[in-house]
Automatic annotation (TrEMBL):
Pfam families: GrpE. It comes from Acetobacteroides hydrogenigenes. It is found in: Cytoplasm. This is Protein GrpE. Residues 55-82 form a coiled coil. Participates actively in the response to hyperosmotic and heat shock by preventing the aggregation of stress-denatured proteins, in association with DnaK and GrpE. It is the nucleotide exchange factor for DnaK and may function as a thermosensor. Unfolded proteins bind initially to DnaJ; upon interaction with the DnaJ-bound protein, DnaK hydrolyzes its bound ATP, resulting in the formation of a stable complex. GrpE releases ADP from DnaK; ATP binding to DnaK triggers the release of the substrate protein, thus completing the reaction cycle. One of its GO terms (biological process) is protein folding. The gene is grpE. One of its GO terms (molecular function) is unfolded protein binding. Keywords: Chaperone, Coiled coil, Cytoplasm, Stress response.
Length: 200
């Protein structure tokens, strides 16, 4: 028995190191696998961090471009509204210069009518009055209206004060007493201020 036991110990000694170290290699392989898994996990974590950082950068860029788009849209909308308003204003007041020139002729018509009323021969008065009425109705159809604010408080939006005159009554202080030259509106816009006398 001793011989066989001894032989067994010798056999064990004579065995190659590969055969004797088998469990150690398995342990090494397991350690390498765990190290590889840990390395892969750390790489995955680094990749996830890089992706989240990139995602934040992209989110910021998206927010910036969205803000630019909204501002550009608002600017364009304001531009469109402004040009539409300007076009409407231009259409409404397109003939303003011409109408201002015609108003000078209207003033002459009114002075001629006042002079004809004083004459004893009024044969031509009716004809001129008819032409005047036709001219005024044509101007009215184009949006021209007379500013008539006699007896109302003086307003610089509609009148220019030529002179001040002592008011006949206390109620007329600061009001329009008389009109020296008529003022006119074109579609609600003053094209000629009325020249008036104000009570003080």
């Amino acid at each position: 028995m001793t011989k066989s036991k001894h032989k067994t110990d010798k056999e064990v000694e004579n065995q190659s190191p590969i055969e004797t170290n088998m469990p150690v290699e398995e342990n090494l392989t397991a350690n390498e696998e765990s190290e590889n898994a840990a390395a892969e996990a750390s790489e995955a974590a680094e990749g996830a961090d890089a992706i989240s950082a990139e995602s934040e950068v992209l989110s910021e860029k998206i927010a910036e471009w969205k803000d630019r788009y909204l501002r550009l849209t608002a600017e364009y909308d304001n531009y469109r509204k402004r040009t539409l308003k300007e076009r409407e204003e231009l259409v409404r007041t397109a003939g303003e210069g011409l109408i201002k020139d015609v108003l000078v002729v209207v003033d002459d018509f009114e002075r001629a009518l006042l002079a004809l009323e004083k004459l004893s021969d009024t044969a031509g008065f009716d004809g001129i009055n008819l032409i005047y009425d036709k001219l005024m109705s044509m101007l009215k159809s184009k949006g021209v209206t007379v500013i008539n604010r006699v007896g109302e408080p003086f307003d610089t939006d509609f009148e220019e004060a030529i002179t001040k005159f002592p008011a006949p009554t206390p109620e007329q202080k600061g009001t329009v007493i008389d009109v020296v030259q008529k003022g006119y509106l074109l579609n609600g816009k003053v094209i000629r201020y009325a020249k008036v006398v104000v009570g003080e």
